[in-house]
Write a structure and sequence with these properties.
By secondary structure, the protein is an all-alpha fold. It has twelve helices and no strands. α1 (19-30) packs parallel to α4 (87-113) and α7 (155-189) crosses α10 (265-282). The structure holds fe (ii) ion (FE2) (2 copies).
Length: 329
């Protein structure tokens, strides 16, 4: 069983029961990258030419992304890792947590490089109601995972685990983050902030694995605990996703009070709904919005297997320890 109280046998990796988790761990190790490999300073020329509204969009994104990476780690540490029995899942989550730390440091590097007042940016996530509402939403589900009354051996406890996993993994990592990635990459579509765009490509490569792991985890837990699969619980999961989309819609209105060249809140929010539909379909729940993808170019950016930076020689299909990977084949 994936979920439950840890027992001594759970400390033995072999025989591997959840090969998908071990495979994702190995892929994640090969995807290791370091923020300072990216020459971010070159983007400063673009920054100088950007409008106040464009700078506001970047600042607003950083204000959410930077603490957001640490919030994901807290949710994994408090709400996901302790309740899984599988050592291969623990290996993967340990690597994911390093990646979230690495993303946090990467966004610190952005804050250091661009002429931004760090404390001003940081305080935005405390002072902006639409941003704080997103954090409160995550914290609500995470808090339940720390309460003494939680028992993940019971169906109710397992449902709480899935609720938190849906909020953190599907909504925050799988919808909100993609909305932010789309905004940054749209600058690169206009030949601006190309190196920041490269950094986002590396982050997307990591996040796409995080999402895959979370989806697999939800699907496998539901398979192992078929009694959870009621129409009522499926509706509840859908509502958690819809609530998350509503929060993102409000946030994007503050991100784009007037819109910027080729981009406004309605455009990004249509993309948010499109992405939410894809996540709901993958969960087996069915699309809710029926939204069309307004940013088809993002499909290329998020197709991690062919993720190539068109502007620099750097290629995000680069992998560390490729030799070890070949030997396993
Ligand atoms: Fe991350
Ligand atoms: Fe992540």
């Amino acid at each position: 069983m994936l979920i439950g109280k840890a027992s001594p046998e759970d400390m033995n990796l072999h025989p591997i029961q959840y090969q998908w988790a071990y495979d994702l761990y190995q892929q994640a190790v090969r995807n290791t990258w370091f923020p300072h490999e990216i020459a971010l300073k070159e983007d400063l020329y673009d920054w100088e030419k950007m409008t106040d509204d464009e700078r506001h969009a970047v600042k607003f994104l950083m204000a959410f992304f930077n603490p957001g990476e640490l919030i994901v780690n807290r949710s994994i540490a408090l709400g996901i890792y302790p309740y899984l029995k599988s050592p291969e899942c623990h290996l993967y989550l340990a690597k994911q947590m390093w990646e979230e730390a690495n993303h946090c440091v990467a966004f610190e590097y952005v804050l250091e490089t661009f002429p931004l007042d760090r404390s001003n940016v940081f305080n935005l996530h405390l002072d902006t109601p639409s941003m704080k509402a997103k954090e409160d939403y995550i914290n609500k589900y995470m808090r339940r995972m720390t309460e003494d009354t939680l028992d993940v051996e019971t169906p109710d406890g397992k449902k709480d685990f899935i609720r938190n996993l849906v909020a953190t993994n599907i909504v925050m990592e799988g919808i909100w983050f993609y909305s932010g990635f789309m905004v940054v990459l749209s600058f690169r579509q206009r030949n601006q902030l190309r190196n920041f765009g490269s950094m986002i490509n590396w982050v997307i490569r990591d996040e796409s694995l995080h999402l895959k792991f979370g989806m697999n985890l939800i699907q496998n837990i539901l398979e192992e605990n078929a009694e959870l699969l009621t129409k009522e619980f499926a509706d509840e999961i859908k509502n958690i996703v819809v609530e998350g989309v509503n929060l993102e819609v409000d946030y994007n209105r503050d991100l784009f009070p007037r819109g910027i060249l080729g981009l406004n809140a309605d455009y990004v929010n249509q993309y948010v709904q499109y992405v939410a539909d894809r996540r709901l379909e993958e969960l087996g729940i069915g699309a809710h919005y029926g939204a069309k993808n307004p940013a088809k170019w993002m499909a290329g950016a998020t197709d991690v297997l062919e993720l190539v930076n068109f502007f620099e020689a750097q290629n995000t299909s680069y992998e560390v320890d490729g030799h070890a990977a070949d030997k396993q084949k």
